[in-house]
Write a structure and sequence with these properties.
110 residues, alpha+beta
C-alpha cells in the first residue's frame, strides 16, 4: 500500500467484489524481501498454472531479478508469500484467483 497503490486499492474496493488486502512491504528493499521467501519458493508449495498467457514474462522477471527493467511481479510474489505463510498456519490450502487477459486463473498455495 504505497504511492499509487492506495488509489488502486480504493478503486478496486469500490468497483469489484475481489477481496482486496492492503499490505505494506517489509524489509529494506525488494532483494531483501525476496531473500526472505526464497526458501518457500524453492520448496515447491506455490503452484502456478503451466499454460497461462502471462507465464513467460512472469518467469523471466523472477529468474532474471534483480537485473530486470520491471520487477513489480517479484515484489507482489514476495508480499503474497509473506501473507500466505502467515494465513496458512491454520489452513491446508489457500486458492488465490488472479485475473489475466479477461479470464481468471488460480494460484494455489498448498
Amino acid at each position: 500500500d504505497k504511492s499509487a497503490g492506495t488509489a488502486i486499492i480504493q478503486d478496486l474496493r469500490e468497483t469489484t467484489t475481489i477481496p482486496i488486502i492492503s499490505m505494506s512491504p517489509e524489509g529494506k528493499d525488494k532483494v531483501s524481501r525476496l531473500l526472505a521467501v526464497v526458501g518457500t519458493l524453492e520448496s515447491g508449495i506455490l503452484s502456478i498454472p503451466e499454460d497461462a498467457d502471462w507465464l513467460a514474462k512472469f518467469e523471466d522477471q523472477i529468474v532474471d531479478f534483480p537485473n530486470v527493467k520491471h520487477d513489480d511481479q517479484v515484489d507482489v510474489v514476495t508480499q503474497f508469500l509473506r501473507w500466505a505463510i502467515r494465513k496458512n498456519k491454520t489452513s491446508a490450502s489457500i486458492p488465490i484467483p488472479i485475473c489475466s487477459g479477461g479470464g481468471i486463473d488460480t494460484v494455489l498455495l498448498i
